[in-house]
Design brief:
The two termini are 17 Å apart. The chain is α+β, with helices and mostly antiparallel strands. Helix content is 22%, strand content 34%. Mean pLDDT is 87; it is low at 312-316. The protein contains 8 helices and 20 strands. Helix 2 (39-43) links the parallel strand 2 (32-36) and strand 3 (50-51). The chain folds into 2 domains: 3-123 and 266-271, 3-Layer(aba) Sandwich (Rossmann fold), CATH 3.40.50; 126-261, Tumour Suppressor Smad4 (Sandwich). It has helices at 14-29, 39-43, 55-59, 70-80, 106-114, 188-191, 276-284, 298-307; strands at 3-9, 32-36, 50-51, 63-68, 87-91, 101-102, 119-123, 126-131, 139-143, 146-151, 158-164, 167-174, 176-180, 203-209, 219-222, 226-231, 239-243, 247-251, 256-261, 266-270.
């Protein structure tokens, strides 16, 4: 039976093209059929290279390998959402929090895929519904990291009302509101002052952006609850909803955004058994040296654990 890997990459970067060439070479040497999502890149490999744009092409793949940063991984997530196909990120960016492997470990990553020495981890998403004034049916969306309601005009704030489980909680003027998953808690929500949530927390985080209010602290609700954020009629300007920084919906005055824990998780291929704490230390370069024995370089240990793979007898 033919095994297939679909590659998604940032085609405009020279380092991404070089990584793509190496990945294709290593995957084909390991016996994989390789497909690319970008037809322009596929042309440079000759007639044998398949191009997969449709969901059917993704469903036929064992893994979707992503060469790039977190933005490229979020783009690839749009292909795999609603399927059982896992994403494997190879970091070509800066922090690369969603990536599982670094550029220099690409060959080792291909070897682990070939030997099925990886595990599949599910990451929760948020389901998003947008209720527009005068529209009988809501618009539907989703996000892996976050859904953000922000002001549409830079010079003015928006006025929003916040509800939880259909009950009013507060209203205030602000630059916006971020509603994130545990995965997204280290992204936009983190930079806005929100807490870090461990990946196995099945909750949704809300973080106000520059709110003018006494009660505007981050909130976390469970998987059966829901946020509703309404752009109040008294708001000086309309707003805009952005899902993962990629999919945009205009929000006129009176529009309401409902966000809840999603029913269809995304799947990631994990090569490393390292706990999330070690990943946090490694990716954020946290200063853990000094409060233990001086010889115990915990940051180096964390990086080594993240780079290491599971034992040879582990299976999918």
């Amino acid at each position: 039976m033919t095994r297939r890997v679909l590659i998604v990459t940032h085609g405009g970067r020279p380092e991404a093209v070089a990584a793509l060439q190496e990945a294709v070479r290593e995957l084909e040497s390991a016996g994989f059929e390789v497909a690319l999502h970008d037809d322009d890149l596929a042309e440079s490999f000759g007639d044998h290279m398949a191009v997969a744009r449709a969901r059917e092409g993704v469903a036929e793949s064992e893994v979707v390998m992503v060469l790039g940063g977190d933005g490229t991984i979020l783009r690839a997530a749009e292909l795999t959402h609603g399927t059982d196909v896992p994403l494997l990120g190879v970091n070509l960016g800066h922090v690369g929090f969603l990536a599982e492997s670094e550029r220099e470990d690409l060959r080792a990553a291909v070897d682990r895929i070939a030997r099925r020495h990886y595990v599949v981890e599910e990451r929760g998403v948020v389901d998003v519904r947008v209720y527009l004034p005068g529209q009988p049916e809501p618009l539907h969306g989703w996000a892996l990291n976050e859904a953000t309601v922000e002001k549409a005009q830079r010079e003015r704030m928006i006025e929003v009302g916040i509800e939880v489980d259909g009950r009013p909680l507060s209203s205030f003027g602000c630059d916006g509101v971020v509603m994130s998953t545990a995965t997204g808690s280290t992204a936009h929500a983190f930079s806005a002052g929100g807490p870090v949530m461990w990946p196995d927390v099945d909750g949704v985080l809300l973080v106000p952006l520059s709110a003018h209010a006494l009660f505007a602290r981050p909130l976390v609700i469970g998987r059966r609850a829901a946020y509703r954020v309404t752009v109040l009629e008294r708001s000086p300007v309309p707003a805009v909803l952005t899902c993962d920084g990629r999919r945009r919906f205009d929000l006129p005055l009176g529009a309401t955004v409902e966000v809840r824990y999603g029913a269809e998780p995304l799947r990631f291929a994990r090569l490393s058994p390292a706990p999330f704490t070690d990943r946090l230390v490694s990716k954020f370069n946290l200063p853990v040296v000094g409060w233990r024995e001086a010889a115990d370089d915990a940051a180096a240990v964390a990086r080594a654990r993240v780079a290491a793979g599971p034992d040879d007898d582990s299976e999918v």
